[in-house]
Design a protein that fits this description.
With about 110 residues, the protein is mostly helical. Helices cover about 65% and strands about 0% of the residues. The longest helix has 26 residues, at about 45-70.
Length: about 110
């Protein structure tokens, strides 16, 4: 999040357009969280969960594409784009770690 704020507030950039990726940070985990909440854990394929993961991946790709498109049309500078992309990577890696850690129902939490 610090990198996204730096991409907006550093004196050479001075534009807050890259901050719109925060909307994707909020929206990206919602379909997967809802699908995991309201589906039964079965051994077979679950179309609801797969659709939610597809929507989540679309939001993640959009979060990476927005700063690139803004930089290509010269709305923001490339330095702000790179800072935003680095912030995207950190945020979405954190979300992936959260889902991988807390997806396991039978894990032993004594190691914490």
């Amino acid at each position: 999040m610090t990198m996204v704020i730096l991409a907006c507030s550093l004196p050479q950039y001075k534009l807050w357009w890259p901050f719109f990726v925060v909307l994707f940070y909020v929206l990206a985990p919602i379909p997967t969280l809802l699908a995991r909440r309201y589906t039964e854990h079965q051994g077979s394929s679950n179309s609801c969960l797969e659709t939610a993961i597809f929507i989540t991946m679309g939001l993640i790709v959009s979060a990476f594409a927005l700063p690139i498109v803004l930089a290509r049309v010269a709305v923001i500078q490339w330095g702000a784009c790179y800072l935003t992309l680095a912030g995207n990577f950190v945020i979405f890696a954190t979300l992936l770690g959260f889902f991988l850690t807390f997806d396991q129902d039978d894990s032993d939490y004594n190691m914490w």
